[in-house]
Design brief:
This protein has 288 residues and is an alpha/beta fold. Helix content is 38%, strand content 17%. It contains 10 helices and 10 strands. An 8-stranded mixed sheet has the order 1-4-5-6-7-8-9-10. A two-stranded antiparallel ribbon has the order 2-3. The protein starts with 16 loop residues before the first strand and ends in a 14-residue tail after the last helix. The structure holds iron/sulfur cluster. Residues 25, 27-30, 33, 35-36, 71, 103, 129 line the site of iron/sulfur cluster (SF4).
Length: 288
């Protein structure tokens, strides 16, 4: 497999074949994100991806899932993405699910018919970064599009039966917008109705503009108890039928809750932690 640069994938794609359909991120402008800063965005040709599919067929003949890297496979021209999905079907017949990071802007550039076509060819899950439901926070961190835009694009995917794993970031509003960020995020998630939510804790990565702001006192990350309160607010107010994960390595308190069934139990766990009855994950065990 010919990978260019560092490869990132969601934790839930640990067993997936990683195919690099695009290089980098088409936006590459979020002020907290360091993932693809050194990469100039481009889409690979279907022929390039087909060569990797042929290799994967030899190396991983029994794997049932494919994740399309890098940051925005949906930005590929429709005909090329269709060709890649058809080649996966032909060359990797055991694969039942293809997923990809989906930038809301790239979803918006697809028609409903195009999204339906991708779903019919096996693209079954989008990992969509909402990050926050608060428009002020989204604008401050350089995210493309406001919360409503993300909700609308997520709903368009769901309408054609593409499942959603939506990522949000605890702490992204800073101390100043902590409460607003948490509540607005819960509202946006409720409006979108994803099958899965992943709440990660913002990690300030050296070299990013947000880290630079933090060093100069222009951005203040909420302390751990406030991050727990944000998590509590999101758990309390996110009205979905799906799984809410806050068990990423960046989180201070690992939570996995099927909503609405496990809501009360999850809130009780956060409250116990806030009272000091359950220890926070120590800093040395936290990571990206
Ligand atoms: S957070 Fe996502 S959209 Fe933003 S720069 Fe990083 S990969 Fe691109």
């Amino acid at each position: 497999m010919r990978y260019e640069g560092d490869i990132f994938r969601p934790p839930s794609e640990a067993d997936s074949i990683l195919l690099q359909a695009t290089i980098g991120c088409s936006h590459n402008g979020c002020r907290f994100c360091a993932m693809y800063r050194g990469k100039r965005f481009r889409a690979r040709s279907p022929a390039e991806v087909a060569a990797d599919i042929a290799e994967a067929a030899v190396e991983y003949p029994r794997r049932g899932r494919v994740f399309l890297c890098d940051g925005d496979a949906l930005a590929m021209p429709q005909a090329d993405l269709v060709a890649v999905l058809e080649e996966i079907r032909r060359g990797l017949p055991e694969v039942l699910r293809v997923s990809a990071y989906a930038n809301a802007r790239s979803v918006a550039e697809k028609t409903d018919a195009e999204l339906r076509e991708l779903r019919a060819l096996g693209l079954r899950l989008f990992h969509l970064g909402l990050e926050s439901g608060d428009d002020v926070t989204l604008a401050a961190v350089g995210k493309h599009g406001n919360a409503l835009f993300h909700v609308e694009q997520g709903r368009r995917a769901r309408a054609v039966d593409i499942k959603l794993f939506v990522t949000v970031l605890l702490g992204l509003g800073g101390i100043a917008r902590s409460e607003v960020h948490a509540l607005a995020t819960a509202r946006a998630l409720s409006a979108m109705g994803p099958e899965y939510v992943g709440a990660l804790t913002l990690t300030l990565v050296p070299g990013t503009p947000l880290h630079h702001d933090h060093q100069r006192g222009r951005f203040r990350l909420p302390p751990p108890p406030d991050l727990l309160v944000e998590l509590r607010t999101m758990l309390e107010h996110t009205d979905i039928r799906g799984v809410f994960y806050a068990n990423h390595a960046s989180n201070y308190l690992p939570i996995r809750a099927r909503l609405p069934r496990d809501r009360a139990e999850a809130l009780a766990a956060v409250d116990a932690c806030l009272r000091g009855e359950v220890p926070l994950r120590p800093e040395w065990m936290r990571g990206l």
